[in-house]
Amino acid sequence: MPNSGIAFQIGFLTVRWYGILIVSGMIIAMFLAIWAAKRRGFDVDELLNMVLIAIPAGIIGARLYYVVFMWPSMYAADPVSALYIWKGGLAIHGGLLGGILAVFLYCYFKKQPFLAWADIIIPGVPLAQAIGRWGNYFNQEAYGYVTDLPWAMYIDGAYRHPTFLYESVWDLSCFILLVLLSLYWKKRKDGGLLATYFIYYSIGRFVVECFRTDSLMLGGGKAVSMALIIQEAIQKGDVSLLWAQGIPIALLVSLIGVAAGVMVLLFNRKYGRRAKGKTSKALPKTTTTSKAAAKGGNKQSATKTKNKR
Predict the structure, then answer these.
(1) Domain map of the chain by residue range?
(2) How confident is the model at residue 289 (pLDDT cuts 50, 70, 90)?
């Protein structure tokens, strides 16, 4: 592992790898959304307005989510340190909640189709997550328990499960899946990609979270990973061990994410509308009356021509 998360320094300005990777992921996701918007004929300026709101809202949500659950152990004694965002401490679930809420409110007040815009924006999100996860590598965070597996990484004084790598790979596969669905899912309805993201990402996050040892907890603390706790509970036949040290919040949120995705799919099945270009309009059909009028006009013009002769 690197000894420092600092990429370079210019005078008093310190630039960290964490920030570089997070910002890079956001920029790439934005350009992917622009491509998707153009492909469907949506207004790019409208998209950029959403981005200008969603990114700050996502960052605030990610930080606030992390600080709230880590307040007693990390920030109660030094509240000002909650502002040191460059040192890490962004919770992706909080970022997603903040960003999605911002886009939803924007669409609500501007009378824009939220689910259509969500499908345009969402494919780039897991790619940004896959890139941003490597910021955890430089900050020596989001790792798993000690292991002797060949791909173990030396983190915090021992070889451990590189759970940030696991999630990065899963996020990358999620990005590929969403792009393929956006291109080849012919009967897709608006919101289908958003629902797929909720379900697919949440399943992967649930599994990866079981290996982590630094999860945000709901009740108590955790010295070992959920995977080891489950193993011990099975060996001892004591189910109460599963929640004796608290439950990782990400596990609960992941279950909610899967449920939300299923609900969107069920909603779409009955009320959803097909994903089409916004600006594409069907040409007016030629009615029988208009055809007859055209024929009548042709006959009249032919008669006039004969009279002139």
Answers:
(1) 6-278
(2) very low
